[in-house]
User: Fold this.
Amino acid sequence: MGECSLYYVPENQGRFVGRENDVADEFWALGVFLATEDEAIFERVREYENDGKALPECEHDFEFGDMGLTDDEEELPVPQELDGLGLTCPHCDADITEQAYDVYDDIDDNPAPVRPIRCIGCGKNSPFKRLKSKLPFTFSRFFLWVSDTDPGDDGTGFLPTVEKVLGPCTIYRSIATD
Assistant:
């Protein structure tokens, strides 16, 4: 079985872009400690523990590997484990997951949603965002992610807490296969 991940994408992402640490601080107050690029929250946890201070308590009790925020200049595919999406060509239904990974990993001037992906089956180009998939996916600049969750967790139990800070969100789920 693969690793399950959950992604919470706010409807109004624009208001959060560039505010990763501010958002992490709001979650801190709710007892949710999120990884950020500069690891500010984890440094704060260490300081609290060293000083013997009590950490804010979280109302949730679920297991996960890691959780954090992504705040990027470019829209990224969500979920990011493309292999679990079963990406296929919108013209001939050929599996083009490998080609999608190549395009996703390639440095390109075009935003990810419109980068052309050439199908190995029919030879036609399609923008990334037009590919068909077994599971829903989107593109986002700002989202909260939770990795290595229970395969049966659909993310709805944690959603009310997430929405206290981010407002209405859509949950995307992935299962990475090895």
Remarks:
- The first strand starts at residue 3 and ends at 10.
- Residues 3-71+143-176 form one domain.
- The radius of gyration is 18 Å.
- Helices lie at 20-29, 40-51, 97-105, 159-166.
